[in-house]
UniProtKB/TrEMBL annotation:
Residues 45-141 form the POTRA domain. It is found in: Membrane. It holds the Pfam family POTRA. Its main location: membrane. This is BamA/TamA family outer membrane protein. The lineage of its organism: Bacteria, Deltaproteobacteria, Bradymonadales, Lujinxingiaceae, Lujinxingia. Gene3D superfamilies: membrane protein fhac (3.10.20.310), membrane protein fhac: a member of the omp85/tpsb transporter family (2.40.160.50). Keywords: Cell outer membrane, Membrane, Signal, Transmembrane. InterPro entries: Bac_surfAg_D15, BamA/TamA_POTRA, D15-like, POTRA. Residues 305-353 are annotated as: Disordered. Residues 1-18 form the signal peptide.
Amino acid sequence: MTWCCAMASAPSHRVALASVLSLGLLAGCATTSESDYIVPGTTDLRISRVELRGVEQVSESELRDGLATREDPGWRAAVPWLPLIGAEHQYFNQFSWQRDRERIETFYQRRGYFGATIVSESIIENPQENTVSVRVTIDEGEPTRIERIELEGLDPSSKISRDDLLEELPLTPGAIFTQDDYVTTRDALGRRLREAGYAYAAVSGRAFVDPETRQADVFFFIDAGPRSRFGQVHIFGLEDVEERFVREAITIEPGEQYDPQRLNETQEDVYELGVFGLVTVLPAHEAREFTLEDEEDRERLENLLEESDVPDDADPQKSVETSPRPGLAATEDPDETSTETDTQEGADTDEAAGNTALGVSTLLESAQLEAERRSRLDPEVPVVVRLKEAKKYNLRVGAGLAVESARQDVRGLLNWSARNFLGGLRRLDHFNLAGYAWAPGLIPREELVNRGVILSSELRFSQPQFIERRTNLRLSASVERDVREGFSVWNPALRVGLDRPIFRKLRLEASYNVAYYNYFNVEESLVDVSTTTLGLDFQTEFLLEYLEQSLILDMRNDVLDPTSGALVALTVQEAGSFAAGGEFDFIKPVLSAEGYVPSDLLGRSVLAMRTRLGSVYNTGRDTGVPIQSRLYSGGTDGMRSFGRQRLSLYTPSGEAVPVGGLTQFEWSVEPRVRLVPNLFSIGDVWGAVFVDAATILRGQLEVDTAANDQGTVSFSELAPSLLYGLGTGVWWNTPVGPVRLDFAYTLSDTTRDPRFRRCADPSTQGTEACVFVPQDQDAIQELLVGYGFYLSIGHSF
């Protein structure tokens, strides 16, 4: 059967009210085409401009983000299919604009400006361009400030004091009253009670706002419930993973004092097993809304809640419903989606007074009765762990382009992984890359370019809970063909490692590594015996064997985009002949640190800092230190005004090839400031300026060894040898990570630094007898362009 709808004609640029009502009466009709449907109130006028006047005390960008009426995206609407950039046209809708007027006033009320009003508006049509501009003028008025804060219902015998609860909360007497601060304070009070061991703690409240005096009285009602301890742990959602492995990762023991931090730690421990896409750990009374796919699991959870006799209203976010205080406007506890504010005057006020003659006393009495009932809850709290296993197999195919001053390449990627491989939480990953590379790049003279196919294949295997519950086994085997400045290389390698957390934020890693290197297409100056005065001899074929230990303290709040916390890591390598006949003996310690300090000084901002200090000590045979084990700087993870590994010592003759050094010191300071919040509803745009400083020196740091032929350098020599660079960057936080663009410029003069100048007599390199060749004939100076440009996903640190 076909249904049809009739609709009165209307001007093309607006919808008549009668037509809208007709649509409402004919709600049962449907058109034959879904595309024929017109949203009531919509016009064909594109919104050319939305002007908000009088906005001074609040963020205009946040206000605009909350409105449905938005400016047309212009040219971006021509490419709506383009990710991140594309957008749809914005047409003026009369009904949406009426709701936006209400949203503006609500926006101000939530921020403490209860008297804010729209004093004028104008909607100007331009028939020639088929557009409309909207202009409103807002009178913000004066903010409402907090007169007093009362806390009721706290048991004097409680383990937590009133001062502890109220310490450093957003709401303070004299501050502007905002809905967000009110909710944040209420939630913080409940969280502090739960952290003190009161699992069923609930905090409700009421804020009474006087629009005439612009003052607010805030009351919070504490319902702590019994002091609690952990009960049994119940696991739901398992399919292929055996339950015993999950229980090994859970350290909560029945009878221990309740602590919500232990729930968070358990969630992290279970997630780190690497086989779950979703992990949630909650006390049973907060797990009622869990969605479980398995019918048996659903029945188990329902039976658990019934046996535990957990009341439906034991949710700590639930509020005591009360009536407004007589004669005042009342702001109720907002739920997760809305905030209701009522202003009662005249008869409404009288009615409210009649219904709640005792005002706050009535609210307190109700809260006390509720608290007495809830104090009889079972202090032993069951814990519910909800799991959803990740996909067992994953396959990823991609392509990429890497561009840097020292090397460019095009590549294709094929990676696959298997979780819970053969059971037992094992994981197997295979990473494959194939492409073509140019080094140092496409721009230099043809004879300077080393080019060729690049290949990489790595197989990784991991076994969590190896030997004991917190130790992980890591195995990897790889083979690589790479193209670099001055050489190409084949490199098969094997790694066997163990890692284990010592404390929550402190991790220890240890590994055995063996690698074979076969260099070809080698630049002659690297193997020319006349260059041995540099002391960093080059070998075309060798076996490297070493042990490595790392101690890592990670207190960052986020791995990809940290905004607070710190990371400190100490890594030590010991090369020798252990099992496969390694040909080198050296010790290589490297200490690095990162720090992130958030601030509101310039809006939302972060001061990011990093430093790194390392040295290589030749401890045995006269084979020196291989080129890939020496220290370099430059590129995205070093001094950014130099290309990758360009801050280095160089071969003293022939083509300029970086060969590293034995001591490295770096530091960077980078103030980061948010520029645009939530651009295109995708993520924030940030900007930064940064200062990088770094040095690479030939000698070993402070300590000499019998096999050392490079001399030593002291700590006092590090600062005078530093090179400095200044740069700026901008990035967009997207779902794949920060997409970042950086530019850096070298401030220091490298033309006078003997590390970056050739000597007319190569045998005098590094001595006072060196006479520099003319700068325009110096191969090293040709490579040091003085600036760096990077496009990447992720931060340098």
